[in-house]
Amino acid sequence: MTQTITVIRGDGIGPEIMDATLYVLDAMKLGLEYEFADAGLVALEKTGELLPAVTMDSIRKNRIALKSPLSTPVGGGFSSVNVELRKRFDLYANVRPAKSFPNTKSRFPSGVDIITVRENTEGAYSAEGQETAADGQSATSITRTTRKGSERIVRYAFDLAVKTGRKKVTVVHKANILKSTSGLFLKTAREVAALYPQIQCEEMIVDNACMQLVMRPEQFDVIVTTNLFGDIISDLCAGLIGGLGLIPGANIGNDAAIFEAVHGTAPDIAGQGKANPCALLLGASQMLDHLGMTDKALRVREAIVATLEARDSLTADLGGTGSTMDFGKAIASRV
Q1: Disulfide check for 287: which of 165, 199, 229, 259 has CB 3.0–4.6 Å away?
Q2: Which fold has domain 1-99+242-335?
Q3: DSSP conformation class of 318
């Protein structure tokens, strides 16, 4: 049985890390077929649109996409291609695992294994109602939190904990100050948590959560939080394990799912073969989990660990001299 996925090669270093990732997937003979589509600056140059209709149709049809980083030009239109994709397909759950890897530039070479589940469609990060006063002296933006949005993301986090055998979910909030928006999120989270007595539920104010993550990250298992807090916390978790080059992201909705590397396009090194493909490879492993190929996903992760342990063809950010494709081939040789 074959599975067709939409592949967006992206901007900057995107095509390089995508080529290395597809090389690994092809080596596993998974029965995947690729439908290539454009978005971001590449699409803008070809079609005059950041998100062409043909790309949207491809994602809608295949329901699964693997995406490299995209650039959004400064100026008019929507604020971010990534945010727009999340809105159009209602990809309400952003899932970012952060796990210690060997031989990385990290203060925590072991003991970190955290999944951040971030609400992906509302809250402050959605930038709803942005407006700057005519005199340029003030600006406003609406922060909207709904019971529906809060309930489904917290349910997703608890269901994920049950499915993956995790023991604790930490609800991160700021309800002590943001009593309406964050308060609604926390109240809803408590109601959902009561339905999962087998999972320990902990509540933590966001500023304390950030401090605790830096001091004792091993105390966290699954974190669920709102959009803006999740964006910040997931990057903090990346810093614990060696940087964004090792962090994937899954954007999950009821009708589509997009898997990605969460780092940027790194235009300063684009085309030079210096980029680390691990984040996108880990995103591809999330995709395989989503497709029910959990054993294949595990093989990808184990091959990455084995390659890091062997220091085989590592890219410069990991202390090696290998190219993007050299690193990909080294991982492929171990899957």
Answers
A1: 259
A2: Isopropylmalate Dehydrogenase (3.40.718)
A3: G
Q: Is 231 a catalytic residue?
A: yes
Catalytic residue among 26, 61, 167, 207: 207
Q: What pLDDT shows up at residue 172?
A: 98
Residue 5 clears pLDDT 80, i.e. is over it: yes
Q: Per CATH, which fold does 106-131+138-239 belong to?
A: Isopropylmalate Dehydrogenase (3.40.718)
Nearest residue to 1 via CA among 32, 36, 40: 32
Ordered DSSP codes for 220-255: -SEEEE-HHHHHHHHHHHHHHHT-GGG-EEEEE-SS
| Among the listed residues 319, 335, 328, the one whose alpha carbon sits nearest the alpha carbon of residue 102 | 319
Check if the beta carbon of residue 91 is closer than 8 Å to that of residue 64: no
Please tell me the predicted confidence (pLDDT) of residue 320. Answer: 94
Strand-pair partners of 95: 117, 250
Catalytic hit among 174, 221, 296, 317:
174
pLDDT at position 72, please? Answer: 81
pLDDT average, residue stretch 154-158: 98
Give the torsion through C-alpha atoms of 124, 130, 133, 138, to 10 deg.
20
- Give the domain ranges of the chain: 1-99+242-335, 106-131+138-239
Q: How many CA atoms lie within 13 A of 49 on its CB side?
A: 10
Helices (H), 63-166: 81-88, 147-164
Q: What is the pLDDT of residues 251-296, one digit of tens each?
A: 999 999 999 999 999 999 999 999 999 999 999 999 999 999 999 9
The phi-psi region of residue 215 (left if phi > 0; otherwise alpha if psi is between -120 and 50; otherwise beta) is alpha
Q: What is the pLDDT of residue 78?
A: 59
Query: Is there a common fold for 1-99+242-335 and 106-131+138-239?
Result: yes
Q: Which of 11, 38, 125, 329 is catalytic?
A: 125
Inform me whether the pLDDT recorded for 127 exceeds 80.
no
163 an active-site residue? no
Q: Is 113 a known active-site residue? A: no
| Residue 312 annotated among the catalytic residues of the structure | no
Predicted pLDDT of residue 129: 79
